[in-house]
């Protein structure tokens, strides 16, 4: 029996050998023809849409049910605390006043989230690059990074307030603190991902530390760095909303503040409308980074090849 | 710092016999290697490679062949003994292609020249030439993931070529490709050798590859590696593929195989 397995393995190996030889005679156009057909790509596109769509319908149905019956049945709370989806949409986005104030809130939150993310990226990548330069730097700074990650923001609000004031600067600070960890760890991991043979090439030609960083380590780290960006992007939206809970000075009410104001007036539909916008912001930022990542590393990175 | 020999002037044509009396391009004398963990990889190895010579080292796995090349290239430093070589025109083809995944073939081939500070225009010209030599024309814009194993190896070969190596090290470069591709790549190596007249140091596990390519074959013992056999290959270049079926070829292969079996025990 083991004989049979052995034989079939050999013939399989043979087959790939011949394929290999044959491939080298292929023209460029032939190689391109090996790429998946447009039809199967369309099927993949379709199946990528259907799954989330089904979940969406289920979600809206469940929401509706919670409004009409579920809140009372499960939590013994009145249904108006969770308005129906159509009420939320109508009251939040079809009434000009509510829409204007929600979108204004979204604007400030988006601003803080994006500015915060930009700062996080610059600071985070710089920290990671510095840490990667020597093992001892990494070892001595890493514990503090973990500690930073573990600090409950609430407990340092007074300190942040005294340093950065009660306005937008403090929100940015919170945003950076909350979202920086994944960028640093992913970049750090990425910078060590070039293999020893590739490093040898640079050693052979006596490449400087800088050349090695710019031409080898950073490019090979790009997929990991973009993973970090994507996680941090989501966190920076959370950071922006958390930050504005504590630092409300100035006439820049973010979506979190607007939501809070509606809740105090018992306008639940608009409160949930704000929540939808905040979630939407997170999704958009996530998707944008996914797309940018694909543009930057998709043409060479193995894992961005879609299995069928 | 290791002593450096002066390199002989470059010959673009077939190397004449007179070159073999010039100073060796690469010279090992009494090279031993003991790794920090105590592994004794090489012991008292001495031999020279001159321009126009193609020396192949065969020996049991783990006997220190790769270590020998790493020492020649300066990646590792010998524990005792000296290596003298001019590393400014050193070509080194690793066992793996080690291409940079984010660069296309053209830019991968340019890499070594780029690290050496060759101006953009010139390295582009040299890379184009090297790509053509290894038969990858038309694939300049492909990324490594779009190439077959044999094509990646060619790209790696081309990358070493742009520095116009005077000393060319090959560490089992074709171990991972199939027989037919390997033979084709061997032809390419020979024509490069004839064209550039470098000093070649090649490692392989294939005796027929060794005999086909080389002017001289060195057999090493099991670890710690030392030289236990030294053969001169009498065939002239260019070598036709049919040489592999020649009686003299088979006889020499037999002798080397015999020496290798002795090396294993
Ligand atoms: N960095 C290292 N540290 C410790 N031991 C090492 C190191 N590199 C190689 N060795 C050991 O040195 C010996 C020789 O290794 P080397 O890679 O030179 O063998 P080789 O002859 O090229 O073998 P193969 O034909 O399998 O490639 C091996 O026993 C290996 O385990
Ligand atoms: Mg080896």
From TrEMBL, chain B:
Family matches, as PROSITE patterns: ABC_TRANSPORTER_1 (PS00211), ABC_TRANSPORTER_2 (PS50893)
SMART domains in the cross-refs? AAA
Q: Name one GO molecular function term.
A: ATP hydrolysis activity
Q: Where is the ABC transporter domain?
A: 26-247
InterPro entries named among the record's database cross-references: AAA+_ATPase, ABC_transporter-like_ATP-bd, ABC_transporter-like_CS, ABC_transporter_ATP-bind, P-loop_NTPase
UniProt cross-references to Gene3D superfamilies, sorted A to Z: P-loop containing nucleotide triphosphate hydrolases
Q: What keyword terms does UniProt attach to this protein?
A: ATP-binding, Nucleotide-binding, Transport
Protein name as it appears in the record: Unannotated protein
Its source organism is freshwater metagenome
Q: What is the lineage of its organism?
A: unclassified sequences, metagenomes, ecological metagenomes
């Amino acid at each position: 029996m083991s004989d049979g397995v052995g034989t079939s393995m050999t013939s399989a190996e043979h087959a790939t050998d011949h394929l290999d030889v044959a491939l080298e005679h292929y023209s460029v156009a032939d190689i391109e023809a090996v790429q998946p057909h447009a039809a199967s790509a369309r099927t993949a596109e379709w199946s990528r849409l259907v799954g989330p769509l089904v979940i969406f319908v289920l979600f809206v149905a469940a929401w509706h049910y919670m409004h009409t019956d579920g809140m009372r049945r499960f939590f013994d709370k009145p249904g108006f605390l969770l308005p129906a989806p159509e009420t939320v949409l109508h009251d939040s986005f079809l009434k000009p006043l509510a829409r204007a104030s929600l979108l204004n809130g979204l604007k400030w939150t988006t601003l803080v989230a994006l500015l915060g993310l930009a700062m996080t990226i610059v600071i985070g990548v710089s920290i990671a690059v510095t840490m990667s330069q020597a093992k001892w730097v990494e070892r001595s700074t890493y514990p503090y990074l973990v500690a930073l990650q573990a600090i409950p923001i609430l407990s340092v609000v007074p300190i942040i307030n005294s340093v950065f004031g009660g306005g937008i600067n403090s929100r940015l600070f919170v945003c950076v603190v909350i979202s920086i960890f994944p960028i640093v760890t992913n970049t750090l991991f990425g910078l060590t991902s070039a293999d020893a043979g590739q490093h040898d090439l640079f050693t052979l030609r006596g490449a400087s530390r800088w050349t090695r960083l710019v031409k080898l380590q950073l490019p090979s780290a790009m997929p990991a760095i973009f993973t970090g960006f994507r996680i941090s992007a989501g966190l920076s939206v959370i950071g922006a909303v958390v930050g504005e809970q504590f630092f409300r000075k100035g006439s820049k009410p973010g979506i979190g503040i607007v939501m809070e104001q509606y809740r105090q007036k018992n306008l639940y539909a608009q409160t949930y409308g704000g929540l939808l916008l905040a979630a939407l912001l997170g999704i958009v930022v996530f998707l944008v980074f996914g797309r940018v990542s694909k543009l930057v590393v998709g043409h060479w990175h193995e894992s961005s090849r879609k299995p069928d | 710092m290791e002593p450096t020999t002066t390199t002989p002037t470059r010959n673009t044509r077939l190397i004449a016999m007179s070159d073999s009396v010039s100073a060796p391009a690469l010279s090992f004398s009494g090279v031993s290697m003991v790794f920090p963990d105590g592994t004794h990889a090489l012991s008292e190895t001495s031999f020279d490679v001159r321009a126009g010579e193609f020396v192949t080292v065969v020996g049991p796995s783990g006997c220190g062949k790769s270590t020998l090349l790493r020492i020649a290239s300066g990646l590792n430093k010998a524990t005792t003994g000296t290596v003298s070589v001019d590393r400014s025109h050193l070509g080194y083809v690793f066992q793996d292609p080690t291409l940079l995944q984010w660069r296309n073939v053209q830019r991968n081939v340019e890499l070594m020249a780029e690290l050496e500070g060759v101006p953009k225009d010139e390295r582009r010209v040299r890379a184009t030439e090297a790509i053509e030599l290894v038969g990858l024309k038309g694939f300049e814009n492909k990324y490594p993931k779009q190439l077959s194993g044999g094509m990646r190896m060619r790209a790696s070969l081309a990358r070493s070529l742009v520095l116009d190596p005077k000393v060319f090290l090959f560490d089992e470069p074709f171990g991972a490709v199939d027989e037919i591709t390997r033979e084709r790549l061997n032809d390419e190596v020979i024509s490069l050798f004839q064209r550039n007249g470098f000093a070649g140091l090649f490692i392989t596990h294939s005796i027929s590859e060794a005999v086909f390519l080389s002017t001289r074959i060195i057999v090493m013992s099991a670890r710690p590696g030392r030289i236990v056999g030294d053969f001169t290959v009498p065939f002239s270049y260019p070598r036709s593929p049919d040489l592999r079926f020649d009686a003299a070829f088979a006889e020499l292969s037999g002798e080397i195989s015999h020496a290798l079996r002795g090396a294993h025990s």
